[in-house]
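Sequence only, no structure available. Ideas?
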Amino acid sequence: MAIVFEPPKALCDVPMHYCPGCTHGISHRLIAEAIDELEIEGKTIGISPVGCAYNNYLYFNCDMIQAAHGRAPAVATGVKRSLPESIVFSYQGDGDLAAIGTAEIVHAATRGENITVIFINNTIYGMTSGQMAPTTLVGQVTTTTPYGRDAKYSGYPVRISEMLATLEGPAYIERVSLHDIKNIKKAKAAVKKAFKVQMAGKGFSLIEILSTCPTNWGLNPVEALKRIEKEMIPHYPLGVFVGADLEV
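Reply:
I predicted one. Tokens follow.
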């Protein structure tokens, strides 16, 4: 009998610790499928963050390194410069990348480091009790904004992709979403292209993925997917912000 479906080899066959309805697992699978299809498992090195995905080194069947909070782009830079033939990616949440790691991501991007960054934006600190993140929407309730984020006191949500797109260093930046099958397919294509950009030596690439956090949003998994479409995408529009000249 012909095999029509099988799990990606770059993803370990173990239970994941994520909450029901969390889309971290989907993004992990897309990365693993891209690694398989590009046949780069043996030379791929991932950088794990601090946050919900702090232990994703348990899930990817490739070499992984744990980085201090927010420092994944700096670690990825060191790995790539030391081992230029390797394929290096960091996997970071919005608290990790857009708060404590803001300096690292800005300077890695402006230097055009030949690394791939997977940026998970779920508008909240998922692991540490649901506090306001830099990406939290105005009016969004969190444990530190119980009456909703007030721009007068807390400022406005940071649009990382748009901000980095103003720099000259990045080769490819795209924002995608995981709220339905059509967009999951687009997300996979973007992740795969980001790896190909690195393989071609084009420079820095970042894929921002709009993701869910049902537990801290206080929603069930279906409601959480709808929230991405109705609330997040209007503020974080999908699309390519820096486009690499590369066939995929």
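The first strand starts at residue 44 and ends at 48.
Hope that gets you unstuck.
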